[in-house]
UniProtKB/TrEMBL annotation:
Annotated organism of origin: viral metagenome
Protein name, per record: Large polyvalent protein associated domain-containing protein
Start and end residues of each Large polyvalent protein associated domain: 15-107, 154-235
Amino acid sequence: MQNMIRGDQYQGLIRQGQKIHSILYGGRDGYIAKIHGDQNPGTIQHLGGGCVSFGGTAHFDIAFTDGHVSKMLPESILRGVQWYISTNPEDTASQEDIIELIGYAERKRKAADDQKSAKDEELRKIRQALPSKYPYLIPYSKDNKVSSHALGSKNIKKELARAFPGVKFSVRSDCYTGGDSIDINWTDGPLTEQVKEITDKYQEGNFDGMNDIYEYNHDNVFPDVFGGAKYVFENRRESRELMLRAAVDLGYQITLDDIATSKEIAKLDYEDQQRIYRRAREIDCFDYTKQSKNQTVTKSTQGTSKVDEVLNKILNCQG
């Protein structure tokens, strides 16, 4: 940085209006808006390569050009390794410039506060309307003494039973150090994507693997009202019968006896087994069963060219 020197190497007193640069928050420029107390740079010490700084007696208010204001920054911090101080006398802000920077920061803060208030009001209305929108669910109450993840588990069961009558879902919640979760398991029936359309709103946020942190979705107020958990897992299991259906769809000549488990098929190599497994995950057993109850399943209605009447009788997808 031209005409700037690192804070721990700067000699002399710092002036009001003097330009500074902080490498924090991606780097930003600012100006000394006010100095509190007398400076005493000779007493400042740095340990651990500048990780720890102490000493000094003055404090500084700094107005940044991006609309932020830092107040009462200790002298030992400003004269540290994360700050740079201008040595160019021309890099000096006038009193009018400083007043304008502080005014800009205040306007920006007020705009952010107004935006937050509007957002809070919007979420409040959504939260207030949810019980009437989902009258069949159990709203959270401090009196019922049920944890959020346990309540979310109960309400997920109710929603899935309404959406997919006849399908047997196992919904369990768990609490552990660092969070909680809800696990949903079922065999055949609806696709995972169809179930997630219902259950996703019970998840409170997502894990950010890049930064190794969990980020809550504060725009999703559904868990506040009907319970939820940090993690919601949907696990669909494909039965042997469904795997046979998928295999026949793809033209494989096998029988139910060739399928030891949903992921282990005799006579076929790994790649063929995975191909069948991927096909099985695409078959909507819930819709298939609903149709088969009311009409004869044909090739045209199911979109398959290999399924015959005998195979349809073997299949027993719950739905």
